[in-house]
Write a structure and sequence with these properties.
The chain contains 5 helices and 17 strands. By secondary structure, it is of the alpha+beta class. It has 2 domains: 85 residues, Winged helix-like DNA-binding domain superfamily/Winged helix DNA-binding domain (Arc Repressor Mutant, subunit A, Orthogonal Bundle), CATH 1.10.10; 206 residues, Jelly Rolls (Sandwich). Strands 6, 7, 8, 9, 10, 11, 12, 13, 14, 15, 16 and 17 form a 12-stranded antiparallel beta sheet that branches. Strands 2-4-3 form a 3-stranded antiparallel beta sheet. A two-stranded parallel ribbon has the order 1-5. Helix 1 packs antiparallel against helix 4 and helix 3 crosses helix 4. The chain is elongated.
Length: 306
């Protein structure tokens, strides 16, 4: 049952504004009760009980039917709604909407990388291994696997927020691992993630995995090379930054100044002072264990008047 502030809803409010009528509803529950049963339970006369029941029927909360067999002369009442929802004239908690973006691995907009490094499309190696210049190769836009031992890779996407939209949560998901020549499942690497030039988290990848083949890794890719990473979900809200639900910093959406920039920049970097420095590997849609690129969801509420 949906209520607001019209006269019909007022009947319901009035019917519920009585301890006796609330006791009647509680006693009936999911059953069918006769007027005499209700009267006896509440220690009331049948006539007074009938008036209370009639008010609950008039507003649509109760309904009634005649009994069967020996009870055919009895009026049995029952509750006809299981939920009453009141819509107030002001919206305090707005529905979240979302701007979603899919970042292809090869569509980076800035980089500085050091060997070991490389790019691979689902069909072939881009250029040759360990040559940073190939990160500007014309085929790099098709890359769905990339890696480097030192440096950074940066992506830029349009910020679709309007001046009447307030960001509430930025979520970025990606498949990532460390980097090690011929792979190594035990090579931790501290990977720092920045949004709009603000460092929000440093994630330590435990290794560069090749113990089993990646579910989506092409058959031509050698077993001894990087096969898959770990899927990470970075989330930034009004309170903190987390990865997979674990707090990583106190950086918030306010620190990113999303309403002041037409772009959103995302950088993955190996800092010079990193304790663990074993590079990074990013997996796109046709490599690794997850059939996705870098996914970006910016949740917001609209401040436009209805």
């Amino acid at each position: 049952m949906e209520l607001n502030f019209d006269n019909k809803s007022l009947q319901v409010y009035a019917a519920l504004g009585s301890k006796t009528r609330l006791k009647i509803l509680d006693f009936i529950g999911g059953n069918k009760k006769s007027v005499s049963e209700i009267a006896t339970h509440l220690n009331l006369s049948n006539s007074i009980t009938t008036r209370h029941i009639q008010q609950l029927e008039d507003c649509g909360i109760l309904d009634s039917e005649r009994g069967l067999g020996s009870d055919r002369n009895k009026k049995l009442v029952y509750i006809k709604v299981d939920n009453i929802h009141i819509t107030l004239p002001v919206k305090i908690y707005h529905e979240y909407k979302v701007h979603s973006s899919n970042l292809k691995l090869g569509h980076f907009t800035n980089f500085f990388v050091m060997p070991t490094c490389g790019l691979v499309t689902p069909a072939k190696i881009v250029g040759t291994f360990d040559e940073p210049k190939h990160f500007m190769n014309e085929n790099r836009v098709d890359a769905e696997l990339l890696w480097f031992t030192d440096g950074y890779i940066e992506y830029t996407l349009p910020n679709h927020l309007t001046e009447k939209q307030t960001p509430k949560l930025l979520e970025i998901s990606f498949e990532i691992s460390s980097e090690f020549p011929v792979s190594n499942n035990n090579c931790p690497s501290d990977i720092t993630i920045s949004i709009n030039d603000t460092e929000v988290a440093t994630y330590t990848s435990p290794g560069n995995f090749s113990d089993t083949r990646g579910r989506f890794t092409p058959v031509w890719w050698d077993d001894k090379w990087s096969q898959y990473g770990l899927l990470k979900h970075l989330r930034i809200n009004d309170f903190d930054t987390s990865i997979d639900g674990t707090n990583y910093s106190l950086k918030t959406l306010a620190d990113l100044k999303l309403n002041e920039s037409p772009f959103i920049k995302i950088r993955f970097a190996l800092k010079e002072d990193a304790v663990n420095k074993s590079g990074l590997t990013l997996f796109g849609k046709n490599f690794g264990n997850y059939n996705q690129d870098i996914l970006v969801n910016l949740y917001y509420v609209s401040n436009e008047s209805n």
